[in-house]
Automatic annotation (TrEMBL):
Organism expressing this protein natively: Acetobacter thailandicus
Alphabetical keyword list: Membrane, Transmembrane, Transmembrane helix
Name by which UniProt lists this protein: CsbD family protein
Species lineage: Bacteria, Pseudomonadati, Pseudomonadota, Alphaproteobacteria, Acetobacterales
Gene3D superfamilies assigned to the protein according to its UniProt record, in alphabetical order: YjbJ (1.10.1470.10)
Start and end residues of each CsbD-like domain: 11-61
Length: 101
């Protein structure tokens, strides 16, 4: 668990660094008129933001998994009933019964 949290923080920090590097490249490219450097900067900004967003989503998903695990531990029979009901509905949707003539 602690390793996962460290990885999330590391991903956020790397995303911030990449985004900052992209902003610098974009600014230098704009000042020098180098369109390629500006494009690289824009890409780095996008990649850094995406990395930060992914880290946030991972963190949220991890919290959801912990809640689900706790629910299953606390209420195993209800969990089994829910899974059985979902399986039954899915089987009706995937394998519809043929109507007899």
């Amino acid at each position: 668990m602690a390793d996962d949290k460290l990885k999330v923080v590391a991903n956020k920090v790397e995303g911030l660094a990449t985004e900052a590097k992209g902003r610098a490249k974009d600014a230098v490219g704009g000042l020098t008129g180098d369109i390629g450097l500006q494009a690289e900067g824009k890409f780095d900004q996008f990649a850094g933001g995406a990395r930060q967003d992914f880290a946030d989503l991972y963190e949220e998903g991890e919290g959801f998994v912990e809640k689900a695990t706790t629910f299953v531990r606390d209420k195993p029979l209800l969990s089994l009933g829910i899974v059985s009901g979902v399986a039954l509905i899915l089987s009706w949707l995937i394998f519809p019964r043929k109507k007899s003539s």
